[in-house]
Structure prediction request, 644 residues.
Amino acid sequence: MSAPDLLEVYRRRVSYGLAVAGSVTLLPFSINNFLQGRVALGIATTTVVALLILNAIAIYKKKRLFIPLIVIFIPSVGGLLLSIHTQGWPGVLWSYPAVLMFHFMLGRRVANVLNGTLVLLVVPMAWTSIEHSMAIRAGVTLALMIMFANIFSIVTSGLYAQVLKEREHAEREARHKSDFLANMSHEIRTPMNAIIGLTHLTLKSELTAKQHRHVSQIQSAATTLLGILNDILDLSKIESGNLQLELAMFELPRVLDTLSSVAALAAREKGVDLVYDVAPDIPLHLIGDRLRIGQILINLTGNAIKFTEQGEVVVTVRRFGTDMIFEVRDTGIGVSPEQSTHLFQAFRQADASTTRRHGGTGLGLAISRQLAEAMGGNLVMASEMGRGSRFTLTVPLGIAPNGPAYGSLLRAREDLARVLAIAGNATSRDVLKAMFAAWGIELEIVESGEDAMWKLARSTKPYDAVIGDAASLEILEDKKGLAMRRMIAIEQPVELAHLAEALAPEGEAETSALAPATIDIRGRRVLIAEDNRINRDVVRELLTVEGVECDTATNGRDAVLMVLDTATPYDLVLMDVQMPEMDGLQATREIRARIDKTNLPIVALTAQALVEERDRCLAAGMNDYLSKPVEPQDLYAMLRRWSA
Prediction:
C-alpha cells in the first residue's frame, strides 16, 4: 500500500473515532435539551448525533464516507446557533468535535472554509441575541477551536507522514539486504557446489587411507560452511518477515529417517546412544512443514550429541490433541540458569568457551525457536548442570483423515510370534518393549550378543527372529544349533518403519507404504544447461557415474535449440537460472510454448536459495527446484522422481 493510501486510511480511522466520540459526547446534551424543554435544540443535536453514528457505521463497514459532510454541517450549525441563543457563550463548546472532525474528513483547506463560514454566521447571530462581550467570547472560542484543530491536524498528519517515510526507508533497506544476501548466496554456493560435488566424486575413486581422510575432511568442512550459510539466510528471512512455510502432507518416518542420516554417524563416533521413542498412536500422515520440523530436530539432536560425552540422546514424539510434541533429551553437560537466559538469542552460546570447544555460530537455537513460533508452536528448555538438557518442541499439525497410526505398520503373524532382541541401552529396551507390545508380538530382550547366544543355546522353542545391530549379531554368525529361524541386523537408532520393513516375511517384496519405488535411472537422457564450466562438469560426472546420458548447454538459447531440435527427447532438463544470452527463466518459457510440463520435466538449478527464487522458477514453467550446492543424493532422487 502506498504512502498516500496509508495516509487516507489513517484519516478515515481518526474520522471514525471522532464520529463515535462526537456522537457519544453529544448524546447526553440532546437528552438534556429535551428534558429542559429546548425541543428545537434537542432536535438539532439529536440529528447531528444520528448523522455522526450513521457516518461512523458507514466508515467501519464500507471503508469510505457514507453521508456527505455538508449534511452533517448544516444541522451542526443550526444546533450551534440555537445553543448560543438559549445558553449563551457555553453553548459554543459542544461544536468542537464537529470542528475537529471536519479537519480529518475533509482536509485542512476545505475544513477551514467551512469553519470560517461557521464563525461568520455565529458571531453576528450571537451579537444580536446575547451580550456583546459574550458574543465576542463565543467568536474567540470558535477561532481558538479552529486554530487548535489545525495544529492537531498538522502535527498528527505530519507525525504519521514521518512514520510512513521511515517505514518506506526500512522496507527499502530490507529489500537491499535481501538482494545482497541473495547475491552473496549465489556467489558462495556456486564454488561450494564444485567443492562438494568434486569431493564426492573423488571419494568414490581409488585413494590411499590418508588421501581419503583428507578429502573427507574437506567435504565435512564444506558441509559445515553450507550449514552456516543456510542459518544466516534463515535468520535474514525471519527478521525481514519473508519466511514462508509449507502446508503439505508428510510421513513422520521420513522426518526421522532424515534425522538419522545426519545424526546417527555423529552419535556412533562419540559412542553416544541415539534412541527414538515414538508413541504408537501418532498419526502416520501429518500435515505441516516437514522440512522446517526436520530442521529444528536436526539442530536440537546435533546439539545434544555435541554436548554429550557419554550416555544417550533420546528423541521422543507424543501427541496431545492436534499438537505434536517432539522432545530431545540428553545426558550431557547441561546448562546453568544464568546461561539459559540468553540461549535462544542469535549469535549467543552458553559461554565464550563453547565456540572454541564445540564450534557453532549460536544461530541454531534462535532460528529453531523462531521457526517453531512461525508454525504456531513453541520451543522450551529445561536443564540441570551435569545431568543433561531437555528441549521440547510443540507444533500444531494437521492430521490426514482416516490415516493409519504409526504403530499399525506391523502386526503379529504366524511366522513372527516370538522375537529376541539385543539392546545394550536401557531406554532402547523400554522402547522395544512398548513397540512389540503394541503389535502383540512376544518379545524377550538381552543386553549383549553373548547373552543372546546363551539364551538361544538353552531355548527349547525357536525364536522367529533375532534382532540387533551388526556388531551384536556378529558373535551368532556361523553358530549351529541355536534356536532361531533368522537374524536381522537393525541400524541404530531403531526406527519403526525400518524395523517393520526388516521383519517382513522372507522373500517378500517391500510392501511398506513408506518404501519409495526404486527406479533405475541408467540410460536416462538429461540436458544440463549451466554456464559455469566447473559446475557443469560436476553435475555431468555425478550423473554419468550412475549411467545417465548427459548433454550440456552453456546458455539458455542453446538449451532451447537442443530441446526443440533433438530427435531423441530428453527425460529431464536441469536448468541454471542465471546464464548469458538467455537466462533459464526465459529459456523455460520458450520451451513451454512448445512442450508442456507433463512431457518434459524442467528442474531449476540455482545458487539462490530464497523462496522468491523458487516461486519465480515455478511461475516460469519449471517442475521443481534444486538449490546449489547440489547434494548427489538429492540430484539422484530428483531424477528418479521425475522419471517415474
